[in-house]
Amino acid sequence: MRNKLKKDLGLFDVFAISTGAMFSSGFFLLPGIAAHYTGPSVFLAYLIAGILILPAMFSIAEISTALPRSGGAYFFLDRSLGPVMGTIGGLGTYFALMLKTAFAIIGIGAYAAIFWDIPTKTVAIIATLFFMVLNLVGAKKTSAFQKVFVIFLLGILIVFIADGLFSIFSVESIRKQAIESQFTPFFSNGMSGLFTTVGFVFVSYLGLTQIASVAEEIKNPERNIPLGMILSLVVTGLIYGLGVFIMVAVIEPTSFANEMAPAATAAKEIFKWLPENAGVWLMSIAALAAFASTGNAGLLSASRYPFAMGRDKLFPAVLSKIGKKGTPIVAILLTTALIILFILILSEEGIVKLASTFQLLIFIFINFSVIVFRKSKIESYDPGYLSPLYPYMQIIGIIISVILIIYLGWMPVLFTTGVVVMGLLWYHFYSRGKVKREGAIYHWFALLGKHQYDELENELMTILKEKGLREGDPFDETVIKSKIKILKAETDFEEILNKVSVNFSTKLESFKEDITQKFTHSLPEESVITLPGVLIFHDKFKSIAHPSMQVVVSQSAINCTTLFRDNELKTPIHICVFLINSDENPKQQLRMLSRLLDILEREHLVKAILKMNSHREIKEYLLQNERFVSIKLLKGTPQEAMIGRQLKEIQLPKDVLVALIERNNKTFTPNGSTILMADDVLTIIGEIKSISKLYREYMIYEIEKLDT
Question: pTM, whole model, 2 decimals?
Answer without folding.
Answer: 0.72
